[in-house]
Amino acid sequence: MGYLKVYIFLAVTCSSVIIGQGGLTTKKPDLIDLPTSVASLKSISDAVPSVDVIGPSHEPQKSPSPQPDTTTTPTTSTTTSTTTTSTPAPTTTTEPAPNTTTVPTTTVTPAPEPKPTPAPGPLPRPTQGTWYYTDQSTNVTCILVQFAAQLNITYPKNNTSSLGYALLNVPANASVVDGNCNTTSQRLTLSWADGNHTLTMHFLANDTTKTYHLNSLNITISPEILINSSLSRSVEVWHGAEWAMPLNTSYRCAADTQLNLTAEVTSVAATLTLSQLQEEAFRTQHNNNSFSSARECGSADLPDAVPIAVGCALGGLVVVVLIAYLEGRRRSAARGYLSMDSPIDPRYDYQELFGL
């Protein structure tokens, strides 16, 4: 290690002497950046031949002629090792930012729980409708009716011994599909649900009594509305005679009227409830859609002889009481006034007073 230091010192001294001779003082050294390890090895390898030239026991000769071989090589190596060796700047490696992929959040909405189907509510009350039939040849509206109707049917179910029930309202927009205006028999037919259901009212007139009445009411129902029914064809039900009244008089009943219907199938039963009812047949007005004077339902259906008989009985009773009173007054005036102190048989006076 000591020899190495001596060699380096001699090489530096020799180089300084040669550089100080002039000629090269104006030339700037070429700077070569070398890694530290390479520069150290190069300087060591260049220093060894310079030591062999100079030698440890000889003084350096001052020669006016520079030796280019020994001057150029040590100058470059000396300058590089002493002044130009620099530690390279640390390399900063910038790591790229990681690629961030945003995954969209999927919100799964739970399926709603199935709700039970609510049971059908009660059938609402029917709406009143107005219908009429006009004879096209005479232009006379012979039949005019208005009512709200609801039909209740009981029927046998298919392959069971149980019964089914169905409610059906006659719609207010039912169509008049048939009718006639004969002198003693008139008819009006309504239809709805594409002709699957019909209602027919038949009226008869009596020229002798000058009255008319509802002779029959027929209803035909399609079996499709009868759920699980064992019936395969239309159901027909009817009602007999009702509501006799004088001609040129309408029949009116605001209260609910229930009609029991008869079916051609014995296992079927039905009732028809009519409300806000008013009807008139055998009319003679031309295109007049207003009713004649109405006869109310209930007591108005009694025969005319009943109220007449009751009135006559009441009148006769009043006459009898009046005659008895006048006769008693006459007898009292004929006998004169009796003293309150005189003994009187009350029974005798009572019998005498009333002629008993």
Automatic annotation (TrEMBL):
Classify the source by domain of life.
Eukaryota
Spans traversing the lipid bilayer: 305-326
Q: What is this protein identified as?
A: Lysosome-associated membrane glycoprotein 5
Q: Which stretches does UniProt call biased (Low complexity)?
A: 68-110
- Chief localization class? other
Q: Does the keyword RNA-binding apply?
A: no
Tell me where in or outside the cell this protein is found. Answer: Cell projection, Dendrite; Cell projection, Growth cone membrane; Cytoplasmic vesicle, Secretory vesicle, Synaptic vesicle membrane; Early endosome membrane
